[in-house]
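Researcher: Sequence recovery benchmark, item below. Answer with residues only.
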């Protein structure tokens, strides 16, 4: 995640050269730390890597769409895509946990042994 944001800022802001990395580093470190924390705490233990990959894919896809198609500035594209990607990943994770919980409750009700 960290490398993606740093390379994206370097590519999107070529006129700033090395200053682009200095500007993007705090955002990249903060978002990378948030992504790591969310990937370890939120999902079920067996699906940590799946959750992290989904989160990364959602953020990378939305930052690309925001920057290339909507022509947002780089910093707004990164911030919006991180909020959207993290939120969608959390929502999908919550829906999955609720579905598994519901299936377990239904199986216990059908089989009262």
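Model:
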């Amino acid at each position: 995640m960290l490398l993606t944001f740093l390379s994206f800022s370097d590519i999107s802001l070529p006129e700033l050269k090395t200053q682009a990395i200095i500007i993007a580093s705090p955002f990249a470190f903060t978002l990378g730390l948030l992504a790591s924390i969310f990937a370890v705490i939120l999902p079920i233990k067996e699906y940590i890597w799946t959750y992290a990959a989904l989160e990364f894919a959602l953020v990378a896809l939305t930052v690309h769409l925001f920057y290339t198609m909507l022509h947002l500035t780089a910093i707004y594209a990164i911030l919006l895509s991180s909020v959207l990607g993290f939120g969608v990943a959390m929502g999908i994770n919550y829906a999955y946990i609720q579905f598994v919980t519901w299936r377990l409750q239904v199986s216990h009700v059908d089989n009262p042994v």
